[in-house]
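Structure tokens
________________
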Amino acid sequence: MKDTPPGECPQCWQHAHDRRVHRKLGPREDCPQCVDHMVNGHPHLVPKKSRWW
């Protein structure tokens, strides 16, 4: 699994790119963690590198 790129949410990145996360869900079944995340927002984002010296 790759590291989360700058400016992205680690949970969103993992759930979008790791098939193992949603393997236990049935057809058309929503992931409770994803639904909670969409309702409550991102807890934190990976910081982007600053362009300031």
Helices lie at 10-17, 32-40. The mean pLDDT is 85. The first helix runs from residue 10 to 17.
